[in-house]
Give the backbone structure.
Amino acid sequence: MATDIIMPQLGESIAEGTVVKWFVPAGGVIQKDESLLEVETEKVTLEIPSPITGRVDEIRVKEGETVPIGTLLARIENAPPSEVINRVGGVVVRPMEQDRVGDQHHSPAVRQLAKEHGIDLSQVKGTGVGGRVTKKDVLDFIAQGGAQIKVATAGGEPSMGEEVRPLTQMRKTIADRMVKSKQTSAHVATFFEADFSHIARFREGRNLTYLPFVIRATTRALRDVPVVNASWSEQGIVVKKDIHVGIATALEEGLLVPVVRYADRKGLTQLAKEIADLAERARSKKLSPAEVQGGTFTITNHGGFGSLFSTPIIHQPQIAILGIGAIQKRAVVIDEAIAIRPMGYLSLSFDHRVIDGATADQFMAQVKHYLEQSHWEQIL
């Protein structure tokens, strides 16, 4: 018997998916719940685990191919009943072969990644349990120059002074979306500066970053200026009644925007927990498609590495995105005197088709007001 692996339904509005990578080749063995392949839709990238332990009998869809939902991707061969060691959903599974000699410390995903980049795994220092080499170890090795692809010069000779990093499917998707957004929306940006002194004092002794405070202030401003929580359509401006805030999350290979739903109804502690959970599962590719859909407004915290100003690109079909710069102590004038305050620059990229500068500035003035004047102890 064989178990069919099909392209899963990754969201109600998703009609197709792309096979990004196979972690186990045809003929390879795989354990139940071990990552079999990585697939990507227009909304999310996910690693699909094997439903059983078995041998990959055949692979029907190659890496890079886009196919409709329900397409047969591969088959995993099961064992005859006499070799039963486990039973999953009525499927009989046989004992697995041991890894090939020399590969006992390398998972299929690690071997595949090393093969793609021509890496000798014996040269990679493992940081996993028992010195096991992880995917991160391989990626770090590549980043440090452990693997390079020669580039042909105009004369046909390879140049050792250059490196070509192949485009991942996620990078291609991000590139397409960013270009499309710039071609679709009339991008304009406005900047405000906010005093975070009150928030800094409130955070003392509490395990809270600045981000939950910005989310809370933003959702209150969206209630005051609801047209910012909208999208464009040929029939008219669609103003959203619910507030679902997307949080731009950086990954090693790109960017995802998981969504905090009904963000205006949640206190600081709950927001902090949800942000941390979504970010962790985004980085481990455990998000469901529904968790990156339905956002009505996006926030990106570009100040993590010290960036002060940014003009983020709007996340379609939304009409605005708020950027948070690094919060730093600066000399400012307060009541005719110079004082040192933790200050941060906020940017708003907005679609000028939908809102004008005065409306955008009104919204940002409200965000600034709520950041500086809110009684945070009442919404903890």
In short: The chain has three domains: 2-97, 118-166, 170-379. The two ends are 56 Å apart (CA to CA).
